[in-house]
């Protein structure tokens, strides 16, 4: 089967899903055309997973960081308008590339090119991703977040309005349709331990103060921070700012607690590895706040509202981990089989 796989490069979850699914596509001898949209440069594990498949880069929209841990409305709107000509050009180029490839199936992971109704509209499209779950009709809405919900609904329309079937995966099996998370393929290769350090990851910068305050009170505790090109001023000496992302999974597997933004992939990987979780959802980002609320509801993690020290006292939910770990482990195969089932029954 000839398959186009479109993936958004913003964040790491979309790329990790592809890296995990790619060996299954290869095993069944499908021919892939990979389209990567977004401004972020894909990490090595994704680039290595592409192998001999053809890969094309395209333009996408992005949410701009306000520097305070949230989404800047003004900068995001400006970036959207500024990038619109290039995005339209990518839609046209993507349509030509895909039409020439003549695929039997398109898989789109929050990618505005392959998910657009203007691109290859005659080809059956399966959308996949965690962002579908908070928008589902069966889930409770978080109160008082009209702007955040507007953001996620607009992004979803831009990225999924052309898909025929939308598959949702999430951190907990809310219903029979909810698929397990797709963990990165090398997650079981790392040695798990608890060396006592905190692992901090911020996809949006500006939420370090409660962590720095904790570090100043606990000078003997190592805190490893990802997401910053250089250390901000006046940070405690026990906060180590790591820029080598190849070390991230190992540092996560050996930490005591994951502290950071509430992106789906990070919290799922942390929970699977048996780590306590304290999250700081991005302001203006509905899905991240929904993730944070669900973590607390399920006692999988905690939403940092004030003092980090208090949240670190909560124990890890061993019973829930024992229940969900097999479900997480089935994620890659389950999602792949669901995609291929829809592909085979699309006529």
Question: Can you characterise this structure?
Answer:
The chain has 347 residues and is of the alpha/beta class. It has two domains: 2-180 and 330-344, Glycogen Phosphorylase B (Rossmann fold, 3-Layer(aba) Sandwich); 187-327, Glycogen Phosphorylase B (Rossmann fold, 3-Layer(aba) Sandwich). It contains eleven helices and twelve strands. It has helices at 13-27, 44-50, 73-101, 146-160, 209-217, 248-253, 264-272, 286-297, 308-312, 318-329, 331-344, and strands at residues 2-8, 31-37, 54-58, 105-109, 125-129, 165-168, 198-201, 223-226, 239-241, 257-260, 276-279, 302-303. Helix 1 links the parallel strand 1 (2-8) and strand 2. The radius of gyration is 20 Å and the shape is globular. The two termini are 15 Å apart.
Strand content: 15-25%
Sheet with the most strands, sense and barrel status: 6 strands, parallel
Task: From the alpha carbons, calculate the radius of gyration and give it in angstroms.
Answer: 20 Å
Tally the beta strands. 12
Stated plainly, the CATH topology of the largest domain is called Rossmann fold
Number of helices: 11
* Average pLDDT number: 89
By CATH, the superfamily of the largest domain comes out as: Glycogen Phosphorylase B
The SSE order reads EHEHEHEEHEEHEEHEHEHEHHH
Q: Can you tell me the residue ranges where pLDDT is under 50 for at least 5 consecutive residues?
A: none
Summarize the helices and strands and which ones pair or pack.
Layout: E1 2-8, H1 13-27, E2 31-37, H2 44-50, E3 54-58, H3 73-101, E4 105-109, E5 125-129, H4 146-160, E6 165-168, E7 198-201, H5 209-217, E8 223-226, E9 239-241, H6 248-253, E10 257-260, H7 264-272, E11 276-279, H8 286-297, E12 302-303, H9 308-312, H10 318-329, H11 331-344
Helix pairs in contact: 1-2, 1-11
């Amino acid at each position: 089967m000839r398959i186009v796989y479109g993936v958004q490069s913003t964040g790491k979850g979309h790329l990790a899903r592809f890296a995990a699914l790619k060996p299954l596509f290869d095993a069944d001898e499908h021919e892939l055309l990979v389209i990567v949209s977004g401004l972020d440069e894909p990490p090595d594990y994704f680039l290595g997973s592409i192998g001999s498949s053809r890969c094309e880069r395209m333009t996408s929209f992005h949410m701009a960081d306000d520097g305070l841990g949230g989404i800047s409305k003004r900068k995001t709107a400006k970036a959207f308008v500024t990038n619109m000509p290039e995005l339209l050009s990518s839609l046209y180029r993507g349509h030509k590339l895909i039409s020439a490839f003549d695929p039997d199936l398109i898989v789109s992971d929050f990618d505005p090119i392959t998910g657009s109704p203007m691109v290859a509209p005659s080809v059956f499209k399966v959308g996949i991703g965690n962002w579908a779950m908070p928008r589902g009709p069966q889930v409770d809405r978080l109160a008082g977040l009209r702007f955040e919900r507007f953001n996620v609904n607009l992004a979803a329309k831009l990225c999924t309005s052309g898909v025929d079937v939308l598959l949702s995966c999430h951190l907990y099996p809310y219903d029979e349709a909810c698929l397990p998370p797709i963990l990165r393929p090398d997650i079981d290769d790392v040695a798990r331990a608890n060396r006592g350090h905190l692992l901090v990851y911020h996809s949006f910068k500006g939420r370090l103060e409660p962590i720095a305050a904790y570090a100043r009170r606990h000078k003997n505790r190592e805190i490893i921070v990802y997401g910053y090109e250089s250390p901000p001023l006046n940070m405690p000496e026990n906060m180590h700012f790591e820029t080598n992302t190849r070390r991230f999974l190992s540092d996560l597997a050996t930490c005591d607690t994951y502290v950071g933004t509430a992106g789906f992939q990070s919290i799922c990987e942390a929970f699977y590895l048996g780590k306590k979780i304290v999250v700081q959802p991005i302001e203006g980002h509905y899905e991240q706040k929904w993730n944070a609320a669900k973590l607390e509801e399920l006692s999988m993690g905690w939403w940092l509202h004030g003092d980090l020290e208090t949240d670190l006292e909560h124990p890890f939910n061993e019973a829930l981990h024992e229940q969900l770990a097999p479900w997480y482990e089935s994620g890659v195969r389950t999602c792949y089989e669901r995609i291929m089932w829809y592909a085979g029954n699309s006529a």
